[in-house]
Amino acid sequence: MKERIAIYPGSFDPVTEGHLEIIRRSSKLFDKIIVVVMTNYRKTGLYAFSVEERMELIRKCTGDLSNVSVDSYMGLLADYAKAKNATAIVKGLRAVSDFEDEFQQALVNKKLNEEVETVFLAASSEHMFLSSSMIKQICQLGGDITPFVPGEIKNEIIEKLKKG
């Protein structure tokens, strides 16, 4: 039987408890999950964390998940999926407003790579309001981000965002 490899793409700037929830849930559904830090051409230059820093933060949060690896990519997700023999792309949905854009991307990815399916996982009610942008804003304004980010990387996020 073919190994079921899924890709969970995102900018993860920084990784949140919501992201971690989707990673953990998808790791139970697939043989292998590749969390891929993507560079969004619309956000180039606007990232608080470098690609390497984002990858390292994700690794620190997922070290207990033996079937999760972390990578980065700049290009078409459909091409990356093909190169990694992925059968699925995992997308987390926070609200109905996320769905329209994600659905459009799923259709394009299917057109570019017929072998890959997009799987949508709804965020839990506990995390559906979370975004990396919101966490950056809370932190930069001196708020407590403890409930929103994994504990093992909280101090690194605070340190980086307070400098920036």
The stretches of 5 or more residues where confidence is low (pLDDT under 50) are: none
Distance between the termini: 48 Å
Q: Give the overall shape.
A: globular
Total E-strand runs: 5
Please give the count of helices: 6
Number of domains: 1
Strand content: 15-25%
- The fourth-level CATH homologous superfamily is HUPs
Give the name of the CATH architecture.
3-Layer(aba) Sandwich
User: How are helices and strands ordered from N to C?
Assistant: EHEHEHEHEHH
Which strand order spans the largest sheet, edge to edge or round the barrel?
3-2-1-4-5
Overview of the molecule:
The chain has 164 residues and is an alpha/beta fold. It has a single domain, classed as HUPs (Rossmann fold, 3-Layer(aba) Sandwich). It has helices at residues 17-27, 51-62, 77-83, 96-112, 132-140, 154-163; strands spanning 5-10, 32-38, 68-73, 88-93, 117-122. The chain has a five-stranded parallel sheet with strand order 3-2-1-4-5, sandwiched between helices. Strand 1 (5-10), helix 1 (17-27) and strand 2 form a beta-alpha-beta unit. The longest helix has 17 residues, at 96-112.
